[in-house]
Amino acid sequence: MKNDQRLPGRRMLLRLAAGLGTAGAVRVIAADPAGAPSPTSAPVAGAAGPRSAPRARPSAYRLRPMTAGAPPRFRPAAPPVRTRPFEKLPEIGHAMVLTFDDGPDPLYTPHILATLREHDVRAMFFLCGEMAHDHQDLVRAIAADGHTIGNHTWTHPLVTELSRAGIRDEIGRTSEVIEKITGGAPLWFRAPYAVWNRNSFEIGAELGMEPMAWTVDTLDWTEPGVGTIVRRVREGAAPGVVVLSHDAGGNRSQSVTALRRYLPELLADGYRITVPQRR
Ligand SMILES: [Zn+2]
Description:
Blueprint (H helix, E strand, L loop, with lengths): L9 H9 L7 E5 L8 E4 L52 E7 L7 H10 L5 E4 L1 H6 L1 H9 L3 E4 L12 H19 L5 E2 L8 H9 L3 E2 L4 E2 L8 H11 L5 E5 L6 H16 L3 E2 L2 E3 L1
Parallel strand pairs: 3-4, 3-9, 3-10, 4-5, 6-7, 8-9
Antiparallel strand pairs: 1-2, 1-11
Helix pairs in contact: 2-8, 5-6, 7-8
Bound molecules: zinc ion.
Zinc ion binds next to loops.
């Protein structure tokens, strides 16, 4: 599959997304396996513009409208609704968050899971609903290993090209399939291509989710070489950093191999690898 297409107009959309203003803070707690989590406040991260998180546009799935009049099934995110995503999590201390987008994929996700299991760390997986629906055993495996599952829309569209109803369909159906498989609806949402708009923030909040971007983009989807991916993670490593990689959407063998190198190196450097938790 080809996954490196840049969508026309993306630069303009990013500028629009970046101009949405500032937001308040929500309370998150750092998941610390060594002790009780401590509540802290997570301020809005800096203005560094996140880059793309490509995935081949799926072809087979046809969106169906949401059931009209369905009762709300998700508790809303803490007000006020954010107008920017979290990009880093300074409250987690000397720890980092590893995130994997676009899956699950039977070729790569099991290897990612095995490496995380080997080092007994938890990560975040932002799943596409379509992939989750097609690989439910992998969704269960991710959840069973204690990882945090986030919502990455059903078909990986540019949400800015969708109507409000269309966004709700993409995000809502994904939350529903994840809840159906794992028993819990996701609490975090990541817009494809890091392109957000007000509707996506509002609908994500209505569905109980906070928006999560990242600090360090490995650009692993460009297949830059294992050494380059490792170097990007190591050079970007700092407390509270969120790392973006992909476990689906193309050949992700470099992502798999790179994780096997940089994860033990981060741990040797004294970083905890953790996931944020909301309450
Ligand atoms: Zn993506």
